[in-house]
Every structure is written in C-alpha cells, then in structure tokens.
C-alpha cells in the first residue's frame, strides 16, 4: 500500500510536508457547492496545465490527473508519476463534440448516437486517432479514448485550458483509485503542481468504454452506463 496523505495534512493552501498547493473549488459563498466552481482556482489550474504542469482534479467518480493532452512532455510526466506501463493508453477529456475534429479521423453514426445520448457523462468512446495525437496517449494503437465529463469542476477545467486534458485516475498503476484527496499517494501529491479539492467523490466503477472504430460497436469495459442502455441507444441502427 503506497503512503497516503494523513488527514491532518489536508488544508486549503499548502500540504504541511510538501509544496503541492490545495485549492478548494466550491463556490466562494458555499464551499460544498461545486455546481459553480471557484473561478480563481480553475484559472490557476489552467495556467499550470498549459505550462506542462500536473493538476489533480475531480474527474467524476474518482480524482484524476490532468495535463495538456497535446504536449508529449507533459504526457510523459503522467506515465512516470503513475508508474504506468507504456502499452496502457490514456484517455482524454474534451469540452464538447466540436473538440473531436483535430483528434479523430472519423465519427461514425454509432458514435454520434452515443455522444448525443450519454455526453456529458460516464461513457468513453474509442476513435481512430489523427496524427496530431501523441502515440504516448494511444500506446501506439492509433486509437484514442475520449469523454466529455459531467463533473462541473472537470468541465470548467477543460473549458479553461481550451483543449483536451488527460483524464486518467490519480493512483499508482495497479492501485485503487482515490475518491478523496486524503487517499492520494504522497509520492503523487509531492510531484503534482496543484490539487483541486472537491470533497469526497462518490467512487464507483468508472466510465464504460466503447470502441466505435470497427464495423460493429464493441464494449471494452462495463461501467456507469450499462450495456443495456448502450444497446438500446444503438437500436435504431439495427432496425430494418
């Protein structure tokens, strides 16, 4: 079990034994209301990401690691920090469907149906990646996983950056994900540049992953969006 941040080391401002800053991102007048995140914290996080920094943020059910998904140097930091095998791709988060254009070669009808039905939300779609996408992200598969997040902090962060960010979970490879910042490995918090604290997240099984690159849709991982809901959404394509 990796070392974790002790609860009494968590406070707005600074961690007591390292230099990683923690920003509570609830509304200034209602710290536990994350529907309208604190704008100053989001601006600071965006600047860090655009300067090859690492931000820990509430991705949805768990905390995630955000860097500029178009910057290979920043992406490499994520692999090093997570001790992640290079053959394991990293998904990205975008603001809306318009942001797909520079990242994917083709958007099939099945993908459009699923995006319209489940985005923003807990569904990651696998597309054929363009040459602009770093092979680090795709693990040289030439495929990229993409999702539009529904958590208001994650959405605000993507909007502030103005481009795709990584959405991989904030945990060491092979270890459980973290639903609150007190669970984060200290080795990770010491190297992150900023932590956006949105309290205790609900946890859970994460997003469903669906590959839309072939002749038929393939569900690669079951998740918050059930197989049944995915099949029902796609039923118009199979009707004769």
Question: What does the model show?
Answer:
By secondary structure, this protein is an alpha/beta fold. It has a single domain (12-238), classed as Alpha-Beta Complex (DHBP synthase). The protein has 7 helices and 12 strands. The strands form 2 sheets. It has a 6-stranded mixed β-sheet with strand order 1-2-10-3-4-9, with helices on one face. Strands 8-5-7-6-11-12 form a 6-stranded mixed β-sheet, sandwiched between helices. Strand 1 and strand 2 form a beta hairpin. Helix 1 (39-49) packs across helix 5 and helix 3 packs across helix 7. It is globular.
CATH topology: DHBP synthase
Mean pLDDT: 89
User: What is the count of helical runs?
Assistant: 7
- Describe the main β-sheet briefly: 6 strands, mixed
Written as H for each helix and E for each strand, in order along the chain, the element string is EEHEEHEHEHEHEEHEEEH
**Structurally, how many domains make up the residues?**
1
Rounded Rg? 18 Å
Strand neighbour order, sheet with most strands: 1-2-10-3-4-9
Indicate the percent of residues in helices.
Answer: 25-40%
Helices and strands, with pairings:
Elements: E1 13-14, E2 21-24, H1 39-49, E3 55-58, E4 63-66, H2 72-82, E5 92-93, H3 109-118, E6 123-128, H4 135-138, E7 143-147, H5 152-161, E8 165-166, E9 168-169, H6 186-189, E10 194-197, E11 208-211, E12 218-221, H7 227-238
Parallel strand pairs: 2-10, 3-10, 5-7, 6-11
Antiparallel strand pairs: 1-2, 3-4, 4-9, 5-8, 6-7, 11-12
Helix pairs in contact: 1-5, 3-7
């Amino acid at each position: 079990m990796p070392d974790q941040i002790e609860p009494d080391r968590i406070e707005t401002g600074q961690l007591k034994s390292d230099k990683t800053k923690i920003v509570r991102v609830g509304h200034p007048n209602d710290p536990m209301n994350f529907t309208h995140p604190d704008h100053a914290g989001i601006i600071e996080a965006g600047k860090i990401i655009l300067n090859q920094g690492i931000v820990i943020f509430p991705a949805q059910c768990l905390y995630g690691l955000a860097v500029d998904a178009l910057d290979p140097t920043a992406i490499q930091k994520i692999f090093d920090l997570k001790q992640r095998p290079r053959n394991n791709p990293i998904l990205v988060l975008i603001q809306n469907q318009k942001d797909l254009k520079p990242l994917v070669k083709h958007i099939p009808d099945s993908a459009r149906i699923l995006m319209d039905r489940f985005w923003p939300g807990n569904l990651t779609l696998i597309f054929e990646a363009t040459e602009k996408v770093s092979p680090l992200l795709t693990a040289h598969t030439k495929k990229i996983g993409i999702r539009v997040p529904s958590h208001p902090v994650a959405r605000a962060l993507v909007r502030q950056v103005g481009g795709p960010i990584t959405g991989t979970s904030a945990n060491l490879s092979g270890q459980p994900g973290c639903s609150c910042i007190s669970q984060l490995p200290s080795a990770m918090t010491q190297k992150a540049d900023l932590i956006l604290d949105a309290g205790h997240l609900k946890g859970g099984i994460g997003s469903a992953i669906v590959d839309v690159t072939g002749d038929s849709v393939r569900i690669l991982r079951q998740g918050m969006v059930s197989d049944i809901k995915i099949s029902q959404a796609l039923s118009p394509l199979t009707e004769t």
